[in-house]
Amino acid sequence: MKVGGFVDTYYSHDFNHPTDNRREFTTQAVRQNQPRLNLGYVEGAVELEKFRSRLALQDGTSVWRNTSYEPEEWTRYVQEARVGMRAGERTWVDGGIYLGHIGAESWISKDNWTYTRALMLDYVPYYSAGVKISHIIDENQKLELHLMNGWQNVSENNRGKAVGLHYQKALTSSLTFFYNNFFGDEEVVSEKPRFRAYHDFILKWTGHQHWHTLLSADFGHQAQQEKSGVDGWGALAVTLRRVLTETHSVAFRGEYYNDRHGANVVTSTKKGFQVLGASFNFDQALGARALWRNELRGFYSKDRIYPSSKTEHNKWDGFFVTSLSMWF
């Protein structure tokens, strides 16, 4: 049995100085000019030969932003509530609320190369409610099949279900390929389905002692609700990490997100969410269970979407965030 916890605190400064001190179009470091809790959780987990389970309760500004569409407030405090049973020597079946299967970065900041998550990660499910089957094919391959309520929702919002897949393969000892997908009906308006499909491709390379690379490419499409057409969107991200010493590292990320139709990211502007981004990250380990992180990040949009105290909205946004996290 394992009992643990994680606390991630931060202070951020947005150069646009939004009047309500709230940053938009992200789930991370959403409050500026005030120290806040980004994510904190406590967990209890059990690992037995034929059964396993994890219950984790959470809170923080990222939690509130990320669960803003959930109709039942209690669900936002549950990070995971799942139970699993071994169905074979290499197979597990888990059910309940569990962390999402799409993307190259974790919901837990300490497990990522940069403090904030890429834009493509802000707009895929951080959690799911359903059942998943995990199977180890061989020493180099792993497969997961998911049956879920939908696209990041604990409370069901229609009669349809969604399916997803996670596949990973070690191409070499230092190069790993990941593929994730999602297929499901997200809304029903006048009994018309709004089918969504999403694909996520990842390459992770850690072949050098000091240099690591992460490449991600996502694309999705969704049926229009009022017309018979289909809207598509896509995103790219590349992250380079340099390990300086045993306790220090830096990382650079460049990214691009294109959702001109507002299928996944709603801006209510003419050109939608078309954003270039870049960030620089510096980390220092403070012992085995504490981490100090600093990140400078900027965005440029084709439309004026970022709140500003001077011009109401800007095409660009930039901020600095410093974080202290500890876990046990």
Précis, in short:
With 328 residues, this protein is mainly beta. Helix content is 3%, strand content 59%. The mean pLDDT is 94.
Helices and strands, with pairings:
Layout: E1 2-14, E2 36-47, E3 51-59, H1 61-66, E4 78-88, E5 91-99, H2 119-122, E6 127-138, E7 141-148, E8 162-170, E9 175-189, E10 192-205, E11 211-223, E12 230-243, E13 248-259, E14 273-285, E15 290-301, E16 306-308, E17 312-314, E18 316-327
Antiparallel strand pairs: 1-2, 1-18, 2-3, 3-4, 4-5, 5-6, 6-7, 7-8, 8-9, 9-10, 10-11, 11-12, 12-13, 13-14, 14-15, 15-18, 16-17
Structural features:
two-stranded antiparallel ribbon, 16-stranded antiparallel β-barrel, globular, 2 helices, mainly beta
Spatial extent as radius of gyration: 20 Å
CATH class: Mainly Beta
Calculate the mean pLDDT score and round it. 94
Largest sheet: 16 strands, antiparallel, barrel
Q: Strand-and-helix sequence, N→C?
A: EEEHEEHEEEEEEEEEEEEE
Under the CATH scheme, the architecture is: Beta Barrel
Derived from helix and strand composition plus strand pairing, the structural class reads mainly beta
Number of helices: 2
Tally of structural domains: 1
Strand order of the largest sheet: 1-2-3-4-5-6-7-8-9-10-11-12-13-14-15-18
Q: What do we call the CATH homologous superfamily?
A: Porin
Calculate the terminal CA-CA distance, rounded to whole Å. 14 Å
